UniProtKB/TrEMBL annotation, chain A:
The gene is pal. Residues 59-176 form the OmpA-like domain. Residues 1-20 form the signal peptide. Keywords: Cell cycle, Cell division, Cell outer membrane, Lipoprotein, Membrane, Palmitate, Signal. This is Peptidoglycan-associated lipoprotein. It is found in: Cell outer membrane. The keyword Transcription does not apply. It comes from Paracoccus subflavus. One of its GO terms (cellular component) is cell outer membrane. It is a lipid-anchor. Its main location: membrane. HAMAP family: Pal. It holds the Pfam family OmpA.
Length: 179, 440
């Protein structure tokens, strides 16, 4: 696999976005590593929101039906058409379920150095955040985080797995509870 | 004459029968192994059984032998015959017998133990010249520190026979990795350079990455997810106590490194998806940007004089290495080749920068001169990364990861000539080595 160099246009866009985007105000809730206990059974995904909106007002619905994950090309942080479609659905859900906040977790495949992949994951998470905010989600409701290559979803060492690991995962939780 | 060498934790002292100053570097010895890029025939060294208490004397002898042969520069010719072995430390050396065995150098030593203290005397001989090389020396240590006494002796022998600074009495910080690949548990430890005497610095409750030693060997800086969000922390090794250096939940902080004088910490700071390099005053926490661009700028490493950093940036489109001065100015690019260049580490000698190069799906550890000349590939595998220099700038330790769902990282070292690649003997998976200074 050869890694395509980032196109100058994409770099320029990224640079403009980085410059134009003010740092989001800090969100006060602590974020817990959702993978820390991943082998230990049930994973807390937040409380159900009172039932008024039914099954849709759950993190499970968001993860499974809306779609919590978008994928990227190797070494890229630009959003594909498929990713933008998923993020549009995420934005609609977040605008409807205003009691939820989101943390976007950026990830990278195992190729690449640890330090670079942390930065690349941050770039991907930020691209998702910017898209959600552009779709009308309040910037204070979406924060970002990068796990670099530390938390792969698929563990094999070929493109089939790497493609799944070049991702950004939007983790939603009721405001004030953490994720 | 007694010279106290260590002031913390243990008492290891050295007495020279005529103590050279500095003790390590006798430059005028007749027997010398020249360290060049050419193929070097290992120097044949004899280490007959050390005199004194059989148990600890044998253990110290074996550590000295392992240190020396582990460099690839020395060959242990074995214990010799009973007739060739001197009956006591003070007895004359049977040079003829050792010449017959092909030995070029010979070490004679004696270990005495009194309760919790040991004393180790040694002499180094040039077998062909038939004379002592350098002065005899004596090291006193707590019995518990017998391995350090052995490393000190091996350091003396290495320095006298190579003319280089030694590195055996040094420590390495690392990250232990356990658990499945998609939920790895990571823990920072500090160990002797040869994998012994492991001290754990963190528990397994939060993800930790890439510790780096301060030049005095007493502190580590590292990246921790213990707040759920990557931030940098500093660890005092003696007390195993840490504190956060950054606490801004709107900005990720990672890949920290100390300046050589310990005054500054350079690190990567992410804001709005863009990663730059910042400089923090280690005492006050005051910060300022050092390298800023719309590209990814990360993995800073200081020059030995503390005036410059080398770092990784993708401002040209793919990751390459750049050097920047601490007083600002446009960074200078030093790598121009194919592939991706990252995780640079500036040699403590100042002459070379070791780094990770990715070409296609293969990773290499390579070195390059600070002016960008003489790129040299040392290793290659599915995934080699994070090189760290031995304190003498002659050996690089790095992480090698095996591929697949059960892939594991393991620490390896390689000489800067590309020879003597070897895994570190640990019974667990480990990554992110940081080689600390030669201990006093």
């Amino acid at each position: 696999m050869s890694l395509p160099a980032r196109s100058p246009a994409a770099l320029l866009l990224l640079g403009l976005a980085a410059c134009a985007q003010p740092a989001p105000p800090p969100v006060q809730t602590a974020v817990i590593d959702p993978y820390a206990n991943a082998t230990g059974g049930a994973l807390y995904q937040g409380d159900l929101a009172g039932g008024t909106l039914g099954i849709e007002a759950t993190a499970e619905y968001f993860n499974g039906t809306v779609g919590n994950t978008v994928l990227f090309a190797a070494d890229q942080a630009t959003l594909t058409a498929e990713a933008r479609a998923i993020l549009t659905r995420q934005a609609e859900w977040l605008k409807t379920h205003t009691t939820f906040n989101a943390v976007v977790q950026g990830h990278a495949e195992e190729t690449g150095t640890r330090e670079y992949n942390l930065a690349l994951g941050a770039r991907r998470a930020s691209a998702v955040q910017e898209y959600l905010v552009a779709q009308g989600v309040g910037s204070g409701r979406v924060r970002t985080l990068s796990f670099g290559k530390e938390r792969p979803l698929a563990v094999c060492s070929d493109e089939a797995c790497w493609a799944q690991n070049r991702r950004a995962v939007t983790v939603v939780s009721p405001a004030g509870t953490g994720s | 004459m007694m010279l106290r060498l260590l002031t913390f934790a243990l008492s290891l002292t050295v007495a020279g029968i005529a103590l050279p100053v500095p003790p390590a570097l006798a430059q005028d010895g007749p027997l010398r192994i020249e360290l060049t890029d050419g193929v070097t025939e290992p120097l044949a060294i004899a280490l007959p059984p050390f005199h004194g208490d059989a148990g600890i004397a044998a253990r110290i002898r074996d550590v000295v032998a392992a240190d020396l042969t582990g460099t690839g520069l020395f060959r242990d010719v074995g214990p010799g015959s009973a007739a060739s072995q001197p009956a006591s430390f003070s007895e004359a050396i049977a040079y003829e017998d050792w010449r017959a065995l092909g030995a070029q150098a010979l070490v004679s030593a004696e270990v005495t133990q009194a309760e919790e203290a040991i004393s180790v005397k040694f002499r180094l001989f040039d077998v062909y010249a038939g004379e002592a090389q350098g002065d005899g020396m004596q090291f006193d240590a707590r019995a518990a520190d017998w391995r350090r006494a052995a490393h000190k002796i091996a350091d003396q022998i290495y320095a006298r026979l190579t003319g280089e600074q030694p590195y055996f009495d040094s420590r390495v910080a690392f990250v232990q990795e356990t658990g499945p690949k998609d939920a790895r548990i990571k823990r920072i430890g500090v160990m002797d350079y040869d994998g012994q005497n492991i001290l754990w610095m963190t528990d397994s409750s939060s993800l930790v990455l890439a510790p780096h030693f301060s030049r005095d060997g007493q502190r580590l800086v590292y990246t921790s997810f213990d707040s759920g969000f990557p931030q940098i922390r500093v660890m005092d090794i003696a007390t195993v106590s840490s504190r956060p250096l950054t606490q801004d939940t709107g900005s990720m902080a990672f890949s920290p490194r100390f300046s050589p004088d310990g005054r500054w910490i350079a690190y990567s700071r992410e804001q709005g998806g863009n990663t730059d390099i910042w400089l923090m005053d280690a005492a006050t926490g005051a910060q300022r940007p050092l390298v800023q661009s719309p590209a990814i700028d990360t993995a800073p490493s200081f020059s030995p004089d503390g005036q410059r950093i080398v770092f990784e940036s993708d401002r040209s489109g793919s990751p390459q290495l750049y050097i920047a001065g601490l007083e600002g100015g446009e960074p200078v690019r030093i790598t121009f080749g194919d592939g991706r260049h990252g995780s640079p580490a500036w040699s403590p000698k100042g002459d070379l920068i070791a780094f990770t190069r990715q070409v296609g799906n293969r990773f290499q550890i390579a070195t390059v001169a600070t002016d960008g000349s003489n790129e040299k590939t040392l290793t290659e595998s599915f995934l080699d990364e994070s090189p760290s220099w031995a304190p003498n700038g002659r050996v690089v330790m790095f992480t090698r990861v095996t591929p697949g769902g059960n892939g594991q990282p393991q620490l390896h070292s390689v000489d800067i000539t590309g020879r003597n690649m070897r895994p570190l003997n640990l019974d667990f998976a480990a990554s992110d080595p940081s080689w600390g200074p030669l201990m006093p």
